[in-house]
Design a protein that fits this description.
This protein is globular. The longest helix is centred in the N-terminal third of the chain and has 32 residues, at 20-51. The chain is mainly α. It has eight helices and six strands; from the N terminus they run H-H-H-H-E-E-E-E-H-H-H-E-E-H. A two-stranded antiparallel ribbon has the order 1-4. InterPro entries: Cyt_P450, Cyt_P450_CS, Cyt_P450_E_grp-I, Cyt_P450_sf. Heme binds at residue 172. Pfam families: p450. One of its GO terms (molecular function) is oxidoreductase activity, acting on paired donors, with incorporation or reduction of molecular oxygen. Keywords: Heme, Iron, Metal-binding, Monooxygenase, Oxidoreductase.
Length: 237
Amino acid sequence: MVDVLLQLADDPTLEIKLERHGVKAFTQDMLAGGTESSAVTVEWAISELLKKPKIFKKATEELDRVIGQNRWVQEKDIPNLPYIEAIAKETMRLHPVVPMLVPRLCLEDCKVDGYDIPKGTRVQVSVWTIGRDPTLWDEPEAFKPQRFLEKSIDVKGHDFELLPFGAGRRMCPGYSLGLKVIQASLANLLHGFNWSLPDNMTPEELNMEEIFGLSTPKKFPLTTVVEPRLPSKLCSV
């Protein structure tokens, strides 16, 4: 993406000149947007796991079995961690960072699933609603990562029941990087640390309200007690 922007900045044929400071601004926007969305997703994932200790235990057991106790998780390890991948998918299904996809404009009259869509219609796709549709998901309000172990559903826009990054030519341009960041960050946080709720709080008391807007972060930020679970030599800075 940066290479393309730099090429455009050097293109003398453009009607609107793209200056170098514009390239910098675009790049900063992409980095900031990707960082926030990944952090929100990881926070939701850990929150759900703290409410479901059995699922949390199963995740750490997979990490100990595949990775061991003597190193951190690397990007190349992710394909060998299907349960971690399933947790990431289930989190994005139940708590999509962006509840509404970028609007689409119908360019010509068409019919979709029996509905007449006139030319010029602005179409809004609610990812949040799709992820909780009982006709698509068994127990849609429940956090059940195992559902993604039982059937093959990806997040690349091929399966319309799960569209955290959108679909088609207008899907999130950074979905590949974003997905890897979410998976690797979540895996290392679960592998490297023991997590618990503060002040003798029970899982049932953990607040799971969300703020519904352009994004869906937790209404109350997650507060936890974190302790290292790997050898101290791996945690030194």
